[in-house]
Amino acid sequence: MGILTLQYGQCGNQIGHDLYSLLLEDIQQRKKDNPHFSYEYIDQWFDMDNKGMFRPRSIMIDTETKVLNSLKKSPQMNLNRVVAESIGGCANNWAAGYMENNKTFIQEVLDIVRSENEKSDSVLSLLNIYSLSGGTGSGVGSSIIENLCDLYSKKNIINCAVLPYVRGEISTQSYNCVLNLSKLYSITTSTIIFENEKLLHLCKYSLGLSNINYYDINRIISQQIASFFHPVKNVNDSLNLINNLVVHPYYKFLQIRTEPNVKITFENSLENAMIKQSCYDLKHSNKVNKCLSSVFICRGKEISISKILKNSHNFVSWIPEQHKNSIYYVNSPFLKYKSFLTQCFNANNIVTPLQTLINDAWISFTHGAYLHHYNSFGVDKEYFLNSFQQMENILYDYINI
Fold first, then answer.
1. How far is CA 51 from the centre of its chain?
2. CATH of domain 2-255
3. Fold of the 353-399 domain
4. Region 315-325: what's the mean pLDDT?
5. Angle, in degrees to the nearest 10, between helices 141-151 and 173-184
6. Nearest to 198 by CA among 76, 281, 103, 87
7. Using one digit for the tens of pLDDT, what is the confidence trace for 7-55?
8. Domain residue spans of the chain
9. 381-399 and 173-184 helices cross at what angle (nearest 10)?
10. Can you point out the beta strands (E) in 219-349?
């Protein structure tokens, strides 16, 4: 099963750079450790060029070329799958990206996606990586993904969306989050949410890092994406994993935890470290956490997860038993770690960060802040009110599970 990634804006392209760097590192280690290693790990993410070199199956999309120029040494730059022009960005405005700047890219991106699908029928999943805070990832991304959903309705279309810090990034970030999520939630397969706030806490208190920067956070995100979407024994493709997690069309927000995030001497501490991560959700949640479904992937040397299962979320009563905790074991190691544990889950603790952003957007909206920037591209008050209503409906369903 092949994955085609589409990376939008500065954040999406930087995460994509780290993702493919990690994947190449993992593949090279596998080949070194095992001459008979399975090439399904390569086929998942890469094509082979006529020189036998790995060609990342990705499209890099941006409204500025500065970041992409800085990534020229990236393995991705071996491709001609770069769709970018220096048009000054999208001014941190979803409407500018969705209504106007999308016209610069959309046909070229769709042509590349079509070419990829014509070359091989193995591309079954489209993975979109972007930040919700700015204009390119949220706005241009919304337009392209909307078109992909129309053209490839039978494919697995998954978004990896990064939530901004609650305070201190971009004045219009809450608007952009609401407009993107409300536009794409119902039409895509699922959205995996990555919280900058939570990842900062992980870097600071679990990993003991100081002077934390975007590289540290992006590396964890890329590691989480790779560990979940790498091939899993007895699972034909990621769609089966997603189906185990998205058990109802009203509940499509997923989250990922991984351990280790740095090298750990005592492998038995993986289980305790994962439980420690879950404490963040308990501390910052406004209500009792409830879970719809969870998938565990244990790579490398088998470890016990009995403590995690014992301390896991309370599952809702209407979920069939087989969907509550799906556990997969993969004999091969991941990123030089003897054991590596990944959990992807669908739970109501996602309400807290999203509700905070919606509240911030609503306060700005009622005061008329920055609305003229959106009105100039055709996104008026009625458009905003419809988006607010859709997000409130989504969160209402999560709150009442």
1. 32
2. 3.40.50.1440
3. Helix Hairpins (1.10.287)
4. 84
5. 0
6. 281
7. 999 999 999 999 999 998 888 887 777 766 667 778 889 887 777 778 8
8. 2-255, 353-399
9. 70
10. 253-259, 290-300, 314-315, 325-330, 339-347
